[in-house]
């Protein structure tokens, strides 16, 4: 492990020497237990997560690990938290480059378009996540709201679960101008065994759409049984699949902090990711940790 960390340290120095000093983390959550909705998934007896996770806690972690930019992803599905995430991060736009909200509750309803238009007035509102499913059918109204999202230049994160990979395939096919990203490798669950062939087939099918990207995020958290293994070899099957399917131009790094703290500290997660991608060269790493994020999310330049 020490040898690997030293090798990664040298790789980091080499990348910095070539001018690649940006590290954008595209999956960070902030929250406070005082928020009235949206945090029911955090168990009250969880010693790691059942506490406030605000910029004062996160910013030192980002600085210690060389993170220069962050895309916040709303932690729950509460509609007021879309604006709350913009407000709580407005003090430091150089670090908090943008916000991915959550419109799961209203997508496909009359409430969605007005709310989306209002949020989109803030250049730091990059899009929203669909992490819960409130309508069984993907109606014409649902596709209308997604089309508006594309028209406004915003993107959609999918946490696969309520919406399946087959659903996302259908959406990407119908709306080729809508930028879509799969969170956490399509929310894959690892158990040390071979990946399910049917799931792999669906994953590859979705990846054929050029408007769909994939987050290399929450690696240790993909393991159903914790503590997760630390050996890179265990994660190669999903990393290889993602790299082969999406290529170097449609993969984006994310940590899933602070949820990731339940499985490994930030430095360990970053080291594991670098251990796989470092041998692929500086350009691939620049795309993964910076360029692809800017392209996908249309992250506005820092003023």
Would you mind describing this structure in some detail?
With 303 residues, this protein is an alpha/beta fold. It has a single domain, classed as Metal-dependent hydrolases (TIM Barrel). The protein is 41% helix and 14% strand. It contains eleven helices and eight strands. An eight-stranded parallel beta sheet has the order 1-2-3-4-5-6-7-8. β3, α4 and β4 form a beta-alpha-beta unit. α6 runs parallel beside α8. It is globular, with a radius of gyration of 18 Å.
Number of separate helices:
11
Write the CATH fold name. TIM Barrel
Q: Classify the helix fraction into a percent range.
A: 40-55%
Task: Characterize the overall form.
Answer: globular
Number of domains: 1
Quick one: biggest sheet?
A: 8 strands, parallel
How many distinct beta strands? 8
Average predicted confidence as pLDDT? 93
Helix/strand order, N-terminal first: HEHEHEHEHEHEHHEHEHH
Sequence stretches where pLDDT stays below 50 over 5 or more residues: 4-19
CATH class bucket: Alpha Beta
N- to C-terminal distance: 40 Å
**Can you identify the CATH superfamily?**
Metal-dependent hydrolases
Strand order of the largest sheet: 1-2-3-4-5-6-7-8
Structural class: alpha/beta
Second-tier CATH architecture: Alpha-Beta Barrel
Beta-strand content estimate:
5-15%
Radius of gyration computed on alpha carbons: 18 Å
């Amino acid at each position: 492990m020490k040898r690997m960390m030293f090798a990664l340290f040298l790789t980091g120095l080499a990348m910095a020497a070539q001018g690649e000093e940006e590290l954008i983390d595209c999956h960070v959550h902030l929250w406070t237990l005082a928020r009235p909705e949206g945090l029911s998934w955090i168990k009250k007896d969880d010693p790691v997560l059942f506490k406030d996770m605000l910029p004062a806690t996160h910013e030192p972690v980002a600085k210690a690990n060389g993170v220069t930019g962050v895309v916040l992803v709303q932690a729950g599905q509460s509609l007021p938290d879309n604006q709350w995430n913009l407000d709580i991060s407005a003090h430091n736009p150089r670090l908090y480059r943008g916000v991915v909200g959550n419109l799961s509750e209203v997508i496909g309803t009359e409430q969605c378009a007005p709310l989306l238009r209002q949020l989109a007035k803030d250049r730091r509102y990059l899009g929203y996540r669909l992490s819960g499913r409130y309508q069984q059918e993907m109606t014409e109204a649902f596709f209308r709201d997604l089309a508006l999202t594309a028209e406004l230049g915003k993107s959609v994160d999918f946490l696969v679960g309520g919406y399946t990979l087959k659903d996302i395939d259908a959406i990407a096919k119908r709306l080729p101008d809508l930028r879509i990203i799969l969170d956490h490798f399509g929310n894959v669950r690892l158990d040390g065994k071979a990946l399910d062939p049917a799931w792999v087939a669906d994953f590859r099918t979705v990846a054929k759409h050029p408007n769909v990207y994939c987050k290399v995020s929450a690696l240790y958290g993909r393991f159903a049984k914790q503590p997760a293994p630390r050996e890179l070899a265990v994660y190669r099957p999903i990393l290889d699949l993602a790299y082969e399917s999406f290529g170097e131009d449609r993969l984006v790094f994310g940590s899933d902090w602070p949820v990731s703290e339940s499985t490994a500290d930030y430095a360990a997660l970053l080291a594991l990711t670098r251990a796989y991608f470092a041998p692929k060269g500086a350009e691939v790493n620049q795309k993964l940790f910076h360029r692809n994020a800017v392209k996908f999310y249309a992250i506005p330049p820092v003023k």
